[in-house]
Amino acid sequence: MSHLQKSPECEADQGQTCEETQNLQVAAVSYDTGEPCSSSHFMASSLKDQTCEETQGLEIKQVSRDVEEPGPSSYSLMATNQDDLADQIPSTSGGLSDQENQGNPVNPPCQPDTTNTPVMSIDSKVDFLVNYMLYKYQMKEIMSMTDILKLIVKEDEDRFPEILMRATERMEMVFGLDVKEIDPVNHCYALFIKLGLTYDGMRSDQYSFPKTGLLILILGIVFMKGNRSTEEEIWEVLNPMGIYAGMNHFVFGDPRQLITDEFVREQYLTYQPVANSDPVQYEYVWGPRTRAETSKMKVLEYVAKVHGTDPIAFRSQYEEALIEEEERALTMILDRAGSSSLSGASSGAMGSSFPDI
Length: 357
Known about the structure:
Elements (H helix, E strand, L loop, with lengths): L3 E2 L2 E2 L14 E2 L16 E2 L78 H17 L4 E2 H9 L6 H16 L1 E7 L4 E6 L18 H13 L4 E2 H8 L16 H11 L3 E5 L8 E5 L1 H6 L2 H12 L7 H38 L5
Parallel strand pairs: 2-4
Antiparallel strand pairs: 1-3, 5-7, 6-7, 8-10, 9-10
């Protein structure tokens, strides 16, 4: 389900305010960076004075507390050896583990009240910022650097770039969301679904976490396994990450139901029998919605970033992705040429229909 950014107010330095921006779509691939942050009934700078009445007195679960920063060692979603995916099994050091898999309900994150918050370590501030970002995404609001500094970073202002970078990487790798600076002047940020996808798996009637991170992980596994992957192969990757079939996960719920039901129903995956298998086995391939919204190159770039390398390091997949890019470019050129020809023919027909004067 795509989220549309609402219009919270981003307070700039020297009392300047950002102007109005409406309907900023999280799933959009491109956006107008020249558009200043929105100004509306929401004021992000007043978060410290607000409370979350619906969850007052409830313990707010720090969902990112044990999520380690992603990197080649901790988020090895694909094999370092591009010809053998199974050689390396990913580990998130608890980031996507089943530490919360006992079915405990996850309370929605409240707007943080930092009035009496004790001095936090940098790691704690990264955790806090991740929760703040999840809250802003759930509320469809834009963030400002001013408020992040005031609410979270505080006396560690000189380490803001580091804190933001680490939180951004965590949002990207765990939840499949990009943090984009949409107003370079006033330093306002919005969250966008990665890779051009338009799905985050969140429900409008209840609090939940974005599921795009798991979707991108599955798409990457399928692509790196030769564009098809059996269910067994997928669980071989997911189980060491603490993601098990039939066991409730604190971010993804029931992962098997999410993969086999929702991802398939949303047409991001196709679940089909393996040719000539006896007994019958089933495999996953990319669905039509995946092929329409993203590309092999985008997925490969994500995989390469996880490994801290370049896409060309995965030579066979890189060549395959290049061929797809060239085919898409050629199709686009032919479509434009066809449209121009039809337009010209239509104009000529209209001109010949008038009698000579």
